Amino acid sequence: MRVRNSILIVVGTVALIGSPVFALDPTPNPQPPTPGVVSALTAEELADKVQVTYQGFSDLRSAFFQRATNRLSGMTQEASGRLFLKWPGRMRWEYEKPESRLFLIDGKTLWSYSPSERQAIAQDVSGVLTTSPIGILFGMSSLRRDFQVRPIVHAGTKESPESLLELTPKRKGLAFKRVILGVDRGSFLIQRLTVFDLYDNTTTVELSRQQVNTNLKDDLFRFSPPPGTEVITPLKPTVP
């Protein structure tokens, strides 16, 4: 259950910047940053740059590497795979290592499928998506409206190709208390994000080989349980 909630939080944060409005060139801006301009950006200006960038996307695909760390035990779990997002509100999160597992949102239903367990969990998230934090993130959220934004600047960030932006939700009662985004200074794509839950456990996701506006097919975001799969339908979640 913790893994599933972490995925929802993380993916929601990745996709938080809006719905498709414009069509952009499929290749993110390859131009290197202009240090003098980028370094002058405030946290609010950087948040706006990120939001405008994602509002121009209709879909996104990426490889990911994930590391979850338990604060008390210090134990870590690592995983990797592929991520596909299509606005508004569709997601395909494929784990390849350490084992195959799928999390898919088709716009209405969240599917959690384990081939090894031959089990699929289907939850109706249609209403939740419009009222819960993840629904805000999938829809037309505003970084500056919904989060306190703060830059993280230290000696290690001065020569880094990333800017670090801390987001603290203004709304109470969420499943996480802050997120740190690593934002590419040239393209304003999110390269890395770290989510801190209420107990200071962390989940970090690093995104690589990102491509946007590649016309992902709708079929990619549909799921039918294979024959012989046990399907569980719990009550509609109230969180995250």
Task: Report what the structure shows.
The protein contains six helices and twelve strands. With 240 residues, it is of the alpha+beta class. It has a twelve-stranded mixed sheet with strand order 7-8-9-10-11-1-2-3-4-5-6-12. Strand 9 (176-184) and strand 10 form a beta hairpin. The longest helix is centred in the first third of the chain and has 13 residues, at 2-14. The protein is globular and about 55 Å long.
Descriptive tags:
alpha+beta, 6 helices, 240 residues, globular
- Major sheet: arrangement of strands: 7-8-9-10-11-1-2-3-4-5-6-12
Note the run of SSEs as H and E. HHHEEEEEEHHHEEEEEE
Given the helix and strand composition, which structural class is it? alpha+beta
Count of helical stretches? 6
- Percent helix: 10-25%
Binned strand content: 35-45%
Distance between the termini: 12 Å
Question: What is the arithmetic mean of pLDDT?
Answer: 79
The rough form would be described as: globular
Low-confidence stretches: 12-38, 130-137
The radius of gyration computed from the alpha-carbon positions, rounded to a whole number of angstroms, is 18 Å
DSSP summary, beta strand count: 12
The main sheet comes to: 12 strands, mixed
